[in-house]
Design goal:
The structure is a single chain. Helices cover 24% and strands 25% of the residues. With 275 residues, the protein is of the alpha+beta class. Strands 1, 2, 3, 6, 11, 13, 15 and 16 form an 8-stranded mixed β-sheet that branches. A 4-stranded antiparallel β-sheet has the order 4-12-7-10, with no helix packed on it. The chain has a two-stranded antiparallel sheet with strand order 5-14. The longest helix has 18 residues. It starts with 5 loop residues before the first helix and ends in a 10-residue tail after the last helix. It binds 2-oxoglutaric acid. The site of 2-oxoglutaric acid has 11 residues, from strand 6, strand 12 and strand 13.
Length: 275
Amino acid sequence: MTYLSPNQLKQYKDEGFVSPINVISKEEAKKIRNEIELIEKKIPEELVKSGRYNAHLISPLLDEVTHNSKILDSVQSLIGEDILVCGTTLFIKNANEKGFVSYHQDAKYIGLEPYNWVTAWVAITDSNEHNGCMRMWSGSHKDDLKDHNQKFNEGNLLTRGQTVMNVPTHETTPLILKAGQMSLHHPTVVHGSDLNKSNDRRIGFVIQSYIGTNVKQVLGKNSVQLARGNDNYNFHKIIERPKSLMDKNDLKIKKQENDNLQEIFYKGSSKKGAY
Ligand SMILES: O=C(O)CCC(=O)C(=O)O
């Protein structure tokens, strides 16, 4: 059992995130990278744009991480013992590309209420200031939801380029992770990330998010998997775990899920971004 320690719980409560937490080995992270890159090679369009969502539905190794008991122990410390997975995202920044993530609050556009949920960011490669790790505005989760501009700016990995203005970026905390470590962050903490200036890709596998069974999707439909405990609310449709790598039927399920997700992310917007 690897529940969060009192110090880690305090960090989450005070700062809106907790990091770093060891969850898988460097070797396991490398195997996962290889599986991601195999999918990219076999089906080049599968993991780009909206395809980067829910890769755990077609990759047994990403499915394993999603249901990893060390991660779930930490998550349980924050949201209780009845836990659902309601989606995942691959945040990949290739070397020499202009990918960044504008400062935002996840709760602003994800549609999950109440905020009994947490996001786990698992480093598949090392993630540091040089290759554009996440940066957190510590303590910002204690405020209400902030106004976000929709910038649709080039290179922004967020669907609509949602951006909180006037973030004191020089005061933000870089979440430096070794491959195999994770961070957990709160639905309302303001965070973003800069460009990858290294010669290798930076890969984050993000369980976005683990939700308590009492959490509803108020902007559309999300299917879920039961990760731990019991679901006595049954607010969501249950989705199967992958049968094998790139299984044909699983690819279809992923596509359907991602179409639903796009509707949530673009709700109320007449314009579509690059992702
Ligand atoms: O991977 C990144 O750089 C940003 C990820 C992010 O915004 C998130 O996990 O909520």
